[in-house]
Amino acid sequence: MRRLSIRFRLLLAGGIGLMVALLVAAWGLAILFDRHVERVAASDLDNRLDYLVAAVDFDHDGQLRLPAPPHDPIYQRPYSGHYWQITAPGKELRSRSLWDYTLPLPQERADLWHGSLTGPRDEVLLALMRRITVVVLGQQTPLYITVAVDRAELDAARAGFLADLAPYMAVLALALLATLATAVTVALRPLSAIGDRVSALNEGTARRIGKDVPDEVLLLATEIDTLLEKREVELERSRLRAGDLAHGLKTPLQALMGETARLRAIGAKDAALGVEEIGRSMRSHVDRELARARRAAVAGGSSDPVEVAKSVASVLRRTPEGARLRIAVEGPTGLMVPLHRADLAEALGALAENAVRHAATRVSITCVRDHDRITIRVRDDGDGATADLLERLPERGLRLDEQQDGTGLGLAIVADIAAEALGALHLRNLNPGFEAELVLPGPR
C-alpha cells in the first residue's frame, strides 16, 4: 500500500479542518441570525402590543371594544400570518386575519408571556401575551392581549440569509485553502532541500547533510551524518583487512610458485603445471579482491567521463603500444556520472588498454548522454572476438589473446564497477573492430 506524502496528509487534514470550521461557523451564524430576527420580531410585537393595550376599552355597559383597531392591512387579510387577539372573561376581540379561529391561551398566565402558539392553519406562531387588570363596573377584570406572527417568515429570512452567506463562505474557503497550501509549501521547503542533499550524498557531490537544517529534522540529519561517518570507518577497516589478507596471501603464493621449479627438476612437469594453474587462479582472486578493496576505499563521488578519458588517453599515448596508434576522445565536458574518479579511471583504463592491445591503427573513446544515462564507447579497429568468446569475456581469468600477458581480470573488474554503479557493460563486434560500451546513470 502506497504511503501518502506529508504534503498530501497536511493538506488533507488542514482542508478537512477548515471545512468543518466553516460549517460550524455557518451554523453558528445561522443561530445568531435566528436569535437576532426573533428579537427584532419580538420587539415589533411588543410595539403592537403596547398599541392594543392603549387602545382597548370598555363601554358604559361593560362591553369590550377597540375604538381604533390597527389599520395594518396584514391584520385584514385572512390567514396572513399576523394576528392579534384580546380576551376577557366571556368577551373576545380578534383580528380579521384570524377569521373564525381563536388563539389558545398558554397555561402560564404571567403578566408578560413570550413563546409559541398554534395558528389557524396549524402553523407555529411566535406570540407575545400581556395580562392587564382593569376595573369594569366596579369589578377588577383580567384582560389578555395577544399578538402573534408566523414563524415561517422567520425561517424564510434565515434561509435567505444562508443563501446570501453561501457564496461568501465559498470565497472564504478558497482563500483559506490557498493560504493553507502556501503555508504547507513554505513549511515543507526545508524538507525538499534535505531531499536534495540526500540526492547529493547518493551522487557523491556531498559527504554530509550538515547542521544548517530546521530544528525539527536536525536530529535526523545528525543521525544520518553519524551513520555515514561510521560507514566510512567500517569501509576503511574492511579495506585494510582485505588488503592485509591479500598481501598476506601473496607471499605464500609466491613461495608456492617457487616450488614448481623443484617439481620440474625432479621431472614432475604435470604436477608443476597443475600447481602453477592453481597459483594463477588464486593470484587472480587476490588481485581482484585488492581492486575491490581499493574501490571501497573511494566509494561515492562523481566524475566527468570526458576528463577522465582524456587523462587515460594521455597515459596510453606514452606507452609503446599506444604510441603507434591514433587515440581520440570525443564528447562534451560536464557529463557527470555517479562514480569516483579513481573507479572510472580504473574502468576506462582497463577498456582502453584492451583496445590498444588489439587495435590496428586507432582507438576512440566517445562519451554521449542519452536521456538519463551516460554512454561511454571504447572502440578499436582490431579483429574483434569470436562469437563464442564474446559473451564470456567479462568472466574472470578469460583473455582474448592467451599469447599476451595479463590476468584476464580487466573486463571482469569493469563489469563489477558498472554493476555497483547500477550500470552495465556491453561488448560487441564491429565491422571492422570491437566496441566496449559502458552505460552509467547520469546526474539526477
Structural class: alpha+beta
Give the biggest beta sheet: 5 strands, antiparallel
How many alpha or pi helices? 9
Any low-confidence stretches, pLDDT <50, length ≥5?
A: 396-408
Query: Can you tell me the number of structural domains?
Result: 3
Strand order, sheet with most strands = 4-3-7-6-5
Query: Rg, please?
Result: 50 Å
Assign an overall shape.
Answer: rod-shaped
Average pLDDT: 81
Q: Give the DSSP E fraction (strand runs of 2 or more residues).
A: 15-25%
> Would you list the SSEs in sequence order as H and E?
HEEEEEEEHHHHHEHEEHHEE
Number of E strands: 12
Which percent bin holds the helix content? 40-55%
Describe the secondary-structure layout.
Layout: H1 6-55, E1 57-58, E2 64-65, E3 82-88, E4 91-94, E5 112-118, E6 124-136, E7 139-150, H2 151-203, H3 215-265, H4 269-297, H5 305-317, H6 320-323, E8 326-330, H7 341-358, E9 362-370, E10 373-380, H8 387-390, H9 410-420, E11 424-429, E12 434-441
Parallel strand pairs: 8-9
Antiparallel strand pairs: 1-2, 3-4, 3-7, 5-6, 6-7, 9-10, 10-12, 11-12
Q: Can you describe this structure?
A:
By secondary structure, this protein is of the alpha+beta class. The chain has 3 domains: 1-197, no CATH class; 230-297; 305-441, 2-Layer Sandwich (Heat Shock Protein 90). It is 52% helix and 19% strand. The strands form 3 sheets. Strands 4-3-7-6-5 form a 5-stranded antiparallel sheet. Strands 8-9-10-12-11 form a 5-stranded mixed sheet. A two-stranded antiparallel sheet has the order 1-2. Helix 1 (6-55) runs antiparallel to helix 2 (151-203), helix 3 packs antiparallel against helix 4 (269-297) and helix 5 packs across helix 7 (341-358). The longest helix has 53 residues, at 151-203. The chain is rod-shaped, with a radius of gyration of 50 Å.
